[in-house]
From TrEMBL:
Protein name: thioredoxin-dependent peroxiredoxin
Family statement: Belongs to the peroxiredoxin family. BCP/PrxQ subfamily.
UniProt organism field: Frischella perrara
Enzyme Commission identifier(s): 1.11.1.24
Top-rank taxon: Bacteria
Gene3D superfamilies reported for this sequence: Glutaredoxin
Domain Thioredoxin residues, every copy: 43-209
């Protein structure tokens, strides 16, 4: 099953199981964010990817440029363990690794959540690729991906288990819009998929490796 099919199934399940008022609040929030055209600030194909060194799920430092010395990198930014669309995306990458479509060394995922939660998702889902903690969204900001969640929806997030202050260990309510890049060994972005709509993600098969 392709990733977009899995994401559509999640939407259908939410439509059946999530109260209408919460669905409407999500829809209004997303509509407002999409009107801001947040993607226009994001790095694009042809740009040089900024370097970073972040800690992985085991607390070990991982450098983008060091990794690029050995292989190109699929770099994806996700919101957190609390997001079912993000979890489907991470599972999709692991499936691609299992099926030898990509090598685990090529994939790096970045989230603003703490190392604890990255370790949790890695171990529970047997993920073989690096999940890095971007405290304060500093790296996501360099890639032009950061926005602040609207105040009127924060309590709804918290009440359904998406307590961003807990997951990210800060009170900024900043998140990255989902983005996937393919970065070649010359540090250049050669594929880009960025969307404010968190229900849309790039399928591995769409990335020209």
């Amino acid at each position: 099953m392709k990733l977009n099919e899995k994401l559509e199934l999640i939407q259908k399940e939410m439509a059946k199981n999530v109260p209408v008022d919460i669905l409407n609040a999500f829809g209004q929030s997303l509509h407002e964010l999409m009107e801001l055209n947040l993607e226009k600030r994001a790095l694009k194909v042809g740009d040089i990817a900024p370097d970073f060194t972040l800690l992985d799920a085991n607390g070990s430092p991982v450098s983008l440029y060091d990794t690029l010395q050995h292989n190109p990198v699929i770099l994806t930014f996700f919101r957190g363990n609390w997001c079912p669309f993000c979890m489907a995306e991470l599972a999709h990458y692991q499936e691609a690794i299992n099926n030898k479509i990509v090598d685990s060394a090529m994939v790096i995922a970045i989230s603003p959540q703490t190392i604890h939660f990255n370790h949790d998702v890695t171990t529970k889902n047997n993920l073989e690729f690096k999940i890095l903690s971007d405290k304060g969204n500093e790296i996501a900001d360099k890639y032009g991906l950061v926005f602040t969640l609207q105040e009127n929806i924060r309590d709804i997030y918290r009440n359904i288990g998406a307590d961003l202050e807990l997951f990210n260990n800060d009170n900024t309510y900043k998140l990255p819009i989902p983005a996937t890049y393919l970065i070649d060994k010359n540090k250049k972005i050669v594929f880009s998929s960025v969307s404010t709509n968190y229900m849309e993600r790039a399928d591995v098969c769409d990335i020209k490796l």
